[in-house]
Amino acid sequence: MTVKRDDPGPRRDAPLAIDSATFRSWGHALVDQIASLLDSVPSRPVTPGETPSEVRDALDLNGPLPEAGMDGGALLEETARGLFDHSLFNGHPRFFGYITASPAPIGMLGDLLAASANPNVGGWVLSPAATEIEAQTIRWIAELIGFPAAEGILVSGGNMANIVAFYAARAAQAEWPVRAKGVAAGPMLRVYGSAETHTWIQKAADLSGIGEQAVRWIPVKRDQTMDLDALRAQVDADRAAGDKPFLVVGTAGSVSTGAIDPLPEIAAFCRERGLWFHVDGAYGGLAAALPDAPVALRGLFAADSIAVDPHKWLYAPLEAGCTLIREAGRLRSAFSYRPPYYHLDEEAINFLDLGPQNSRGFRALKVWLMLRQAGAAGYRRMIGDDIRLSQRMAEAIARRPDLELTTQVLSIATYRYLPEDLKARAQEEDVARYLDELNQAILERLQEEGEIFVSNAIVEGRYVLRACIVNFRTQTADVDAVPEISARVGAEVDRAMRAKLRPPAPAA
To answer: Quick check: 215 and 201 in contact, CB under 8 A?
Structure first.
C-alpha cells in the first residue's frame, strides 16, 4: 500500500541525513574496503600487540568532541582502515584464544540489514516481522540440538542467557512470591555448580539477591567434571540445615578445557530431588547437533533450561546468546510486567515479557540468515571439522618431546612447554613453579607477537596453554603451526629465563 503525503513544506537540514545516492556511494565503498581487508586478514598478525596508549594515539582518540562534523564517506574509510590496523582478529584462522567465533559474512550483512529496519523487538506491534523471525530462529536452534523448547529468547551472550534461565528457575522453585517479597522472605536459596562453572553464576547470585555465598561449588574429578557424590552430599546437607536448594547447573563444555559434566546423571538426580536442572551449553551445547556427540551431551535433552551462544559455534557476529526453556510460561512468570501504557496483543509474542530488556535489537536476523544459508547439515559439518582439527592439534602436540598435552575435549586442547631436561623433575616444587612462570611468559610472548593467539587455563594446579577452535576459516596448516610455533617460542623464552636466573660469573 502506498501512502499519499501532503506537501511537507521546507525540508529540515539534519546533519545526519543523506540522500539515497550518497548512501549508496558510501555503502558500496565501505563494502569493497571491508572485503579487501577481510582478504588480508590471514597475512596479518592475529593482533598488533599494541599498548592502550599506542592504540589511542594511532586512532587519535585523545582529543575533545569536535564542534564541526566531517564528510561521512571519508570518515568511514578512515575508520575501517584504523579498525583493521589496530584490532585483534577473532576471525583470523590462527586465533585459538577465547571462545569467540569467526564471524560469518552473511551475518555481517545481516546486522546491516537489521539496523536498516531498526525494529524494537520488545513488542510484536513494533516489530512484526522481526518478532516472528526471532521466534523461528529460537525454534530452529532448539531443533538443531534436539531440545524440546516450549519458549526461548535471544540475548546478548552466554552470561545473560544463563542469567535469564537462573531467574526462571528462581521464580519456579521459590515456594513464596519471590518477585514481590524478595529472597529474604523465605529460606536461603542454594544453587550448585562445579568448580569449573563460568563466573556468570556469581553474577546471577549477586544480581538476584541471593548473594554469592549461596553458590555451592562442587568439586571436580580429575577429568574436570562434577563429582556427583559431592553434589548429593551437599544438597542433603543444605536441606537438613533448612536451606532451599533450587538449581543445579551442569556445564556442557567448560571454558578451560571443554569438559562436559555427567549431564544424564545430574538430570536424574534433579528429577529425584525436585530441582531445576540448567545446562550451561554456551560453548559445547551446540555440539549436541552432531550424530557422534559425546554421550554426556545427551543429558541436555532432559534439562529444564539450556543456554547456548550463536556467536560461538553458530559463527554469528557478536553479540548473540540464546536461552531455551522446556516448559511454556516460565520466562513470563520470571519477567513479565504490564503497566497501563502497554497496549500489547496477548496472543502475539512480546519478547519484553520473556526477558530483562524492553527495548531489544534485531539480533535474530543474522542468526536466521546463517541457519538458512548453511542448513543443519552445514553446521554439523563445520562443528565436526573444528573438533577434528583440535584432535589433530592434540595428536601433533603429543608427538613432540618438548610439549606436554594436558587435555583435549570438544575443540579445546590444553598443553604446556616442558623442557626435556626438566621432565623427570616436573613434580618438584621449585621446578613446578618455574614451569608455571615459563608458560605464562610464553603465553605473553605468543599473544604479543601475533603469529598465533592462544590463552591459558589452570589444570590440576598447573598453568597450561589453551587452544580453542570455533572458526570455519581455520585450516590444517594453521593447526599444524601451533606445536611448532609454541615449541620454538618456548625454547627461546626458556633460554632467556634461565640466563637471567644463572648467577653471574665471579670476577677475574
So the answer is: yes
Q: How far apart are CA 142 and CA 326, in angstroms?
A: 10
Extended strands (E) in 203-257: 215-218, 244-251
Cell numbers representing residue 203 in the block: 553474577
Per-residue pLDDT tens over the stretch 45-93: 999 989 999 999 999 999 999 999 999 999 999 999 999 999 999 999 9
Give the rounded distance of the alpha carbon of 481 from its chain centre. 25
**C-alpha distances out from residue 255 to 196, 205, 426, 454, Å:** 8, 20, 26, 13
- Taking 70 as the threshold, does the pLDDT of residue 341 lie above it? no
CATH ID of 380-501, from 3.40.50.920, 1.10.150.130, 3.40.50.300, 3.90.1150.170? 3.90.1150.170
Options 3.40.640.10, 3.20.20.80, 3.40.50.1100, 3.90.400.10; which CATH number does 119-361 get? Answer: 3.40.640.10
CB 278 within 8 A of CB 247: yes
**Can you tell me which residue has the cell 596508549?**
53
Compute the Cα dihedral for 177, 182, 185, 188 and give only its sign.
positive
Q: How many CB atoms lie within 10 A of CB 346?
A: 7
Of 278, 271, 226, 228, whose CA–CA distance to 249 is shortest?
278
